[in-house]
Structures are given as structure tokens and as C-alpha cells.
Amino acid sequence: MKQRKYKEGFSTELYVQLESGATTYAYFDKKKFSFADNFEEVTEELAFDALSNAKLQEILQADSDFERGRLVYEAFSFLTRRQASDIDFWNYLAHNELYPLVHKMWPEIHNPPNNSSTTSYIKNHWLMTKSSQAELMDYPLSGLWWSFYMTVEDGRADKYELTKIFFKNLSFRTKSFGQSKIARHREAVLAVLEFIQENGLHERNFEDNGLAIVPYLNLLGGIRPLGFFNKDWFKSKLSAKFSQDIATHGRLFHRRERPTEAMPVLCVWENAIEKKDGIQDGVTFQVSVNLDLPDHSLFIVLKNGLVKKINGNLLQQLDVNKREQIRGLNDSISNIFYAKSDSLLLVCFKNNRDKKCLKLCKGEEILGHSLHSFLKSVVISPKELKVIPLPQTFEGDVSSLINAEVFLEGESKKEAIALLKPLITEYRMFTN
């Protein structure tokens, strides 16, 4: 028998019916959900086999989330990321074969904790409405599968060694770390878990130690594309940042403040720039900068396709809390960033026919020795524009895109574009 899933739109129907109160009591039956009588009409067949009765019973009888997750993952280990992000698939399982498992994992439907309503409790555990990372990690069944997918490492004697660490704390796995933007990167997840394991951090104050790591790595993600670094790179960053804390105190400190030393912030408007001591409320374009880094510059991207660069040595000379005028920014700002002066720049835009396009430009070709003028055109009259820096090591792999405008979904330069697509998605280079 083939596996089934809900047809598109039926998950929404379930949500609407729950909101209206029509199906609330159907969830009180812990053995079977029996709202949909027209089963064949609301489901569709998939290409792979359904869970066997033996496998289903094994999953339902498992006595820990780790064991349940292992069995669910192994049963569906062949799923692609796209298939595993299908809410109609997970909602189907949560209301059919694995409906009793959700009740077993979350048994308080009659008396939800924290003054939650029954309707909210059902929504939070049975009914996914989005395929976002947050929901995929937080919902019981999808969260089990994705927790294994992101942590299994075949090269180990026990490929689930790091997965077992991940399952030691539910809040860390499904909330604080699992939903963080850094957890999108499998290499980063493996690095964090291996770092925690090697330093024994899972044996004491697990969640606080984890919470110290998350903001630091997220901060790194704000200044460089993390999808292209491996596990060893992430571990080296964690060791450099936290080894002293571990050696001195045997643990990490969960700091609510920013996890790095205080750095100045550059605030930019369409006609001025100002250096501040910290992040400012109500300022759209601002960026923390380390002005001690050599050969770095502030890049200001305008919506009309022009880019301005201001070298770091000029920025060092700015007085704190003193606004300086900038001439030449004669159009509204698209985005800003602080990066190496010779960075390779990824330029994403829509042309006058609303086609998604991209090209690469060399940051070294933009002059940056003045607060005024010296703007460079990276694209002519774009309808939508965003620019970010790439690591210089990419130049060899994507050099064919330098100063060459190509369609994102075109036939030209497909291999080079494929290397950049994860970055384009992660940084939301296009609004839709």
C-alpha cells in the first residue's frame, strides 16, 4: 500500500473547522481522528510505500523521543528536503497513522498547561500551517525527522552520536537553537553539538550553555555567508570565543547582551552618516563595524543601481554622535553592509520585465576614499535590487558571472548560479 498525504487545501480546511469549534472534540479521542469521512477525496497517493503495521507499532510503542525520532527518520530517510517540508504530508500522518503518537507525546489535551486553550493546544501540536524552519522543528512529527536529518553523521562509529546530544534538551532542540537561523546550516549544527560534547557542556547547564552559543553564531551570520563553511570552521570559531570561559569556569555564561565586544555602529541616511556607540531605535540602515579590521569598507547600495564605498580609515576619523553629510546619494537606499574592500559582490535584481537576474561585481573597482561622490553603477535601472558580499574564495567557481547579467532561472551559466542559489534563498535576495 502506498503512503498518502492530504490534498492541497485540506490542511487549511482542518484549521478552519478547528477554529469554528466543529472538530475540537474529535481530537479528544486518543485512538483515532474521524473528522473526514470522504477519505479518498481529501487525500492523494504518493510514490513510496506506507508504514508497515509492524513499523507503525514499533513507533507507537517507543518510549522516548529519541527512539521515536530514529524510527520515523529511518522509515522516511529517503525524503528530499522539499518532501520533508510538505505540511500536507506531516498533517496527514498527525491525523492518521501517527495520530496516537502525537497524543502520547503531548497528552494534556484535556487540561493544557500554562492556561492555554484546548484549541491552541491542538493547533500547536497537530496542525501545521507553514513550512517555515520554526514550524518544521517545533511540530512533533516533522521535528523528530528534521532533528535526525540535521544531526546524523555517517562517518561516526555511532552515526546518531550527536543526535543523542541534540535530544537531551527539548527546548534547545525545538526552540532556542532549532529555530535559530544558524540551525539552517547542517555543518554549523554538527559543529555546535560536537563542541558541546567534547567540552562536556551537555552534562551541566545544558540549555544555558547552548543559549550562549546561539547568539554568537547568529551574529557571525549577519556579517558573512555561513552556508559555505564546514564543521571545522564553525568549531574553530566556537573554540576561539569560548575556550577561556570553559577553562576558567567549566561552563559558558549565558549573556543577554551582544556576545562580542562593543563595536561602533554606523547609521546611514540618504544624505548623511553618523557613528554611534550602539544599535539605534528607528534607524532603518545601520550596521555594527569593527574598524580595526584592515582593508574593510562600508558599502551603500542605492535602489537605482549605484553603489558607494567608504574606506574604513575614513570611518575611523568620524566623531561619535556627529552627523556628517554625504553628497551623491541621490536615490533611496536598498541595503548597506561592511565587508572587505575587495569583496566580490553578488548583485540580484529584477529587470524591466520583472525577470529575476544576477551578476557579480568586484568591490575593488569601486573607489572609496571620499565621503562624497565616487559612486559606481552595478546595474542599469533595476526594478528591485539587493547586493551582498561573497567570500573571495568563490571567485574561481563563479568567475563567469563577473560583470555578466544572467537570468536566475535561465539556461546560461547554470552551474555557477546553482552554487549561489542557497545564498540567494538564505539572504532573501528577492522579495518573491
Short structural summary:
Helix content is 37%, strand content 17%. It has 432 residues and is of the alpha+beta class. It has three domains: 2-149, no CATH class; 167-249; 265-426, no CATH class.
Structural commentary:
This protein folds into three domains: 2-149, no CATH class; 167-249; 265-426, no CATH class. The protein starts with a strand and ends in a 6-residue tail after the last helix. Residues 254-260 have low confidence and may be disordered. Helices cover 37% and strands 17% of the residues. The chain has a four-stranded antiparallel β-sheet, with no helix packed on it. The chain contains 17 helices and 14 strands. It has 432 residues and is an alpha+beta fold.
